[in-house]
Design a protein that fits this description.
alpha+beta; seven-stranded antiparallel beta sheet; 4 helices; elongated
């Protein structure tokens, strides 16, 4: 009888252990809130002068009869690029991110600034679910493989580009 009672109590205790549901993560579907901006006043002035001259040249051309004018104002900007594209950046980020076992559910949002020297200039963690996830984000962005960008340019002048990406943590069902 004692043996049966001990087995029954042991079985009951084993069934009452707290099991944490495993968690998984995914990235936002793309990069968001993309901004390109000059680094200093001198570069900003150069870009502004080129814009003014380009607009003036186009306006003068359009006044001429039978002239073929090309409006290349849309070709002023070159976004920052990652080898093999932003898709490859997201794959490397996803594959190298080490999700903590005790990560909390929710969104962590990161702002990344690509500088004028073909590198990540700054990482800002705008929102995070817990300290361990924040540390994991900081760790993944220390990898050299993620710091191989080509800077954005306006009229060939290197400028900063800033964008945001999110890491979502959810419990597995």
């Amino acid at each position: 009888m004692k043996t049966f009672l001990i087995i029954l109590i042991f079985s009951f205790l084993m069934s009452c252990t707290i099991k944490q549901k495993p968690v998984s993560y995914y990235l936002s579907s793309g990069i968001e809130d993309i901004k390109i901006f000059p680094v200093n006043k001198e570069d900003s002035a150069k870009i502004n002068n080129i814009n003014i001259a380009s607009d003036k040249s186009l306006a003068e051309c359009q006044k001429l009869k039978n002239a073929k004018c090309s409006d290349d104002r849309g070709n002023r900007y070159l976004d920052a690029t990652f080898p093999k594209g932003i898709y490859n950046f997201r794959i490397l980020l996803f594959d190298n991110f080490k999700l903590p076992k005790n990560a909390k559910e929710g969104e962590s949002r990161i702002r990344i600034t690509i500088g004028t020297h073909d590198n990540i200039e700054r990482i800002e963690i705008l929102k995070y679910t817990d300290e361990n996830t924040k540390k994991a984000i900081e760790d993944v962005f220390r990898l050299k493989e993620l710091n191989v960008w080509t800077s954005a340019k306006i009229y060939g002048i290197p400028v900063n580009e800033q964008f945001e990406i999110s890491v979502f943590v959810k419990k597995k069902l």
